[in-house]
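Subject: complex prediction, re-run

Hi both,

The earlier run crashed halfway through, so I resubmitted it with identical inputs.
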Amino acid sequence: MKKQFAVIGLGRFGGSICRTLSEQGAEVLAVDIDEERVNEFTPIATHAVIADSTDESVLKSLGLRNFDHVIVAIGDNIHASILTTLILKELGVKKVTAKAQNDYHEKVLRKIGADFVIHPERDMGVRIANNITSTSVLDYLELSDKHSIVEVIAGKKMDGKTLSDLDVRANYGVNIVAIKEHGYINVSPRADQTVHEGDILIIIGSDPDIDRFKKQML
Ligand code: ATP
Ligand code: ATP
Ligand code: CA
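This time it finished cleanly. Structure:
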């Protein structure tokens, strides 16, 4: 069975989620109070409807309780975002992701049961800052507020050494989950794998451990 998603609020954020889910072949119900926004998504989403998501009877009649994941992408109208999230959780929707406008908004969304809260501007800012502060960091993915997956470029210090020589896990507490070399990717490299300067390493660990690894190894 295909997973069913609903996106409420078709601004830039909700719109891009809706578009990407549709491109991936998912079933997507697109909802907005604004007719023009809905018209824009009629050819893209599986269904697109004009509705006020703060109206409980409307959300019920759309059958939202049966969706696998609902994304509340209403940002500016904090009142509408909170009320919509509350109704969805009361209806029993298992996964609700909500976009927060500020820290206070985030706190309220979490209190009323939002499963995932996203701060697109802040989160993207953190991600970009992490990418630009270190020239060796290519990409960065936050797993929790304490753990990340980071893509880095191996430097001179690692050149010609095996993972076992470097004793990465024991010394830094991080795991190298993959090594990319000349476009070839080796997933779950073994201890005897040699690292070369310029290889791309994908590492997973706690943020302090990753920091230590970056400072001492790269
Ligand atoms: P973004 O910051 O993602 O670009 P935006 O600034 O264009 O979004 P927001 O005010 O954050 O717009 O709202 C996103 C969408 O949510 C808008 O298209 C708006 O019409 C819709 N929206 C606002 N309130 C409701 C509601 N009660 N029911 C359904 N949709 C709503
Ligand atoms: P461990 O208890 O840490 O798994 P081990 O002796 O079983 O130790 P080996 O596979 O023999 O592990 O590797 C020796 C050392 O090489 C490990 O202790 C670890 O520090 C490092 N190592 C091997 N593979 C990796 C990896 N993918 N990422 C990080 N470090 C690794
Ligand atoms: Ca906005």
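Residues 78-91 form the longest helix (14 residues).

- K.
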